[in-house]
Amino acid sequence: MNQNKTGEAGTDHTAAVEASHPRSRIKRIFTSPRVRRIWWWIIFCIYVFLGLCTIAAAYSGLINPEITAIPAILALTFPFWILLTVFLIIATVFVNWRLALVPGATLMICLGPVISNTPINFVKEKITPQNRDRAFMLLSYNCLNLFDARDEAQYPHLPGDGRSPVNPTLSYIIGSGADVVCLQEFPKPLKPNDRLRITSEQIDSLYSIYPHHTANYAETILSKYPLYPIPVKNPAEEYQPFQAAVMDIMGRKTLVVSVHLGSFGLDESDKALYREVTQGGGESKISAARKVLIPKLGQAFVAHAYQAEEIRHLVDSLNIRNVIIAGDFNDVPDCYAIRKLSGEDIHNAYSLAGHGPIITFHTNRFYFHIDHILYRGALEAIDFRRGDSNSSDHYPVTATFLWHPISRPDNHDLPEIDLENRKN
After folding, report:
1. How far apart are CA 140 and CA 144, in angstroms?
2. For the CA atoms of the chain, what is the radius of gyration?
């Protein structure tokens, strides 16, 4: 009996000692209901802040970069915020479902931009023998002036010195099967070149497939269908952000515009600075990036807005129902320039016919989706794909279109096409 009392006393004494231990006191403090509530509110505020950043990135394309370029730069990061939001939902829903409501609500608020950046189109109309005569494909490709952007050391399986014996970008275009091709940074005139491995046979093949073509300093349009070039506004200017032509595509009058909005103008030192920042550069690198990169990006975004307005003015002035605008926009989906250009009537082929997130620029750690195909009229995008050719710093993109069935050709007021005197 005395032993039991002694044992109980010893147990109580031990518990009292443990309870008085600093580590035990700290544990009690941090596991108390009050502290848990404080932590809950701290995490809640962090989630709200991250949600506001995500919403700002999603809708930053509504703000004119002339006011401030910060939203346009923030738009470049929107895919990152989407991934972070999805991660927070998955990581939180099984631990505290109330907290998961915050990123869940964020995702719903940003649903439109999310679909624009990451469309999921499971059900798409297929090309069949019955509708094949209404289908055509358009290819858009920034060609890097036909230079090979790949590291030759990574291609030991290729013949000779590790490179293809012919120009790989030209080979891709020739074998693409596209009916209309919008090219940016394509050399004019196209001539045989040993250094670039451009052969006479490739040139002959290209122009036998696409006998109709037009070009300015920055853009080239190739077509299997007759076309009528639209004269440039200021032919004395060396750089034009677009080239336009009216085509007779399967009897449908169509305005095709090849676009190359202004680049960011980053030199090699700027690109090296960006790589250092994305590799975890210190505060000095981040500060230098703010001083050097942001002003250049801001100037480019302002230029994009002006150029988009100019293209939209051309589209409106010609008053053509069927329009396709394709090329290198140097900006992401839902940016201000694309919103300005699209208005209420022009659609993004990727959003309506693509599947999943993509990048179209892949060098210098600039992993962005900046090549787009827009359209309006009596046609529908039924497929959008990114090609796997990586010989340029851009990937090619293609869209397959299907004309709506009509009782007569949509060929109203098609200009007379002068094939002999066209601009090449």
Report:
1. 13
2. 29
194-238 confidence digits (pLDDT tens):
989 999 999 999 999 999 999 988 799 999 999 999 986 665 566
Q: How far apart are CA 57 and CA 75, in angstroms?
A: 5
Q: Count of residues for the chain?
A: 424
- Residue 324 CA to residue 319 CA, distance in Å, equals 13
Query: Distances from the Cα of 102 to the Cαs of 33, 98, 107, 109, 341, in angstroms?
Result: 22, 8, 9, 11, 33
Owner of token pair 């738009």: 75
Q: Per-residue pLDDT averaged across 295-322, rounded?
A: 91
- List phi, psi (to 5°) of 133: -75, 0
- Exposed/middle/buried for 71, CB within 10 Å: 0-12, 13-18, 19+? buried
Structure tokens at 91: 């990581």
Separation of CA 138 from chain center: 17
Residue type, 138: L
Q: pLDDT tens-digit profile of 244-261? A: 999 999 989 999 999 999
Residue 406, amino acid: I
Q: Which residue has the tokens 């077509």?
A: 223
